[in-house]
Q: What sequence folds into this?
């Protein structure tokens, strides 16, 4: 199979269709496009959990491991509490590098007041570079959970910040020496700083206050993958104007250099939302200094359509992330 997330068809056929056991405490379980699960623990409260591995980069793996998982919890409208880390290391790694990774993770936790609650650390022949898999735990009041599946026909589709910012930062760091031969140093430094925008906690909190119906952190597969997953999870169609999707010039130029599609590039820090009044959410986000745009509408039916330069094309199920073509 290809590197990256397995295809939707394989996921349904060989993973989701094998899961039959159910418990009444599980309020949100495994499904296409859902980043979190939820378990009732009291009459008015639930635990919200997420899990993610970091496999596409090594440089900032500790920070990214925490940030991506916390983002998933925030996109479900939950308050992040803690993470558990499974750290798998190759034989050649030094203790100093391992210490640095955990230090990154702790620094990321401190920023958002989240605790590393435990986990597992192991040197193994099964990996050739460090791999961190994270389980995140948060909490939410019953009735306040936001899922990817909450979009309904007629709702506005909103995108926050810019697409591709995570992938751009990773490529700028991993391929810095090569890129310096083609781009000015200040340009590349700006692209590397995109990793400072990866948290979606502020926009998630604002969106919840404004009555958002669905949220999805834009990760592997980029914005095209996220749009498809929200539409699939919500059983809706979409009409999206490609020109309205926000993208930074640094992302465009770096993607053009490597001949990859910025709309299919990993995009943590960018949030996809659906709401009855997307313009209100955009205004409130802009007041908080968070760029956002209404990019389209949720529609009846199953057609997921992109409009660009007068042309009409259809979205396809998510493919392997473009990042894997570069790093």
A:
């Amino acid at each position: 199979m290809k590197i990256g997330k397995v295809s939707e068809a394989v996921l349904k056929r060989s993973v989701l269709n094998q899961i039959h056991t159910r418990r009444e405490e599980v309020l949100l379980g495994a499904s296409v496009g859902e980043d979190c699960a939820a378990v009732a623990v009291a009459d008015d409260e639930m635990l919200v959990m997420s899990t993610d591995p970091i496999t596409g980069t090594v440089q900032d793996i500790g920070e990214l491991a925490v940030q991506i998982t916390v983002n998933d919890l925030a996109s479900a409208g939950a308050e992040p509490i803690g993470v558990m880390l499974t750290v798998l290391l190759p034989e050649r790694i030094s203790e100093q590098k391992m210490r640095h990774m955990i230090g990154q993770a702790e620094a990321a936790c401190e920023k958002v007041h989240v605790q590393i609650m435990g986990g597992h650390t192991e040197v193994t022949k099964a990996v050739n570079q460090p791999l961190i898999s994270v389980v995140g735990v948060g909490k939410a009041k019953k009735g306040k959970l936001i899922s990817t599946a909450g979009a309904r026909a007629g709702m506005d589709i909103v995108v926050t910040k810019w697409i591709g910012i995570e992938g751009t930062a990773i490529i700028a760091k991993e391929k810095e020496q090569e890129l310096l031969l083609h781009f000015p140093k200040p340009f590349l430094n700006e692209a590397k700083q995109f990793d400072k925008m990866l948290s979606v906690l502020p926009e998630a909190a604002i969106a919840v206050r404004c009555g958002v119906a669905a949220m999805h952190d834009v990760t592997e597969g980029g914005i095209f993958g996220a749009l498809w997953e929200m539409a699939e999870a919500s059983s809706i169609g979409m009409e999206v104007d490609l020109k309205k999707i926000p993208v930074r010039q640094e992302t465009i130029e770096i993607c053009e250099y490597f001949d990859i599609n910025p709309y299919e590039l990993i995009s943590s820090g960018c949030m996809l939302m659906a709401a009855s009044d997307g313009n209100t959410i955009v205004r409130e986000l802009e007041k908080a200094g968070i760029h956002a745009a209404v990019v389209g509408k949720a529609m009846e039916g199953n057609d997921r359509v992109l409009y660009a330069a007068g042309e009409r094309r259809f979205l396809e199920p998510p493919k392997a992330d473009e990042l894997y073509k570069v790093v």
Summary: The two ends are 18 Å apart (CA to CA).
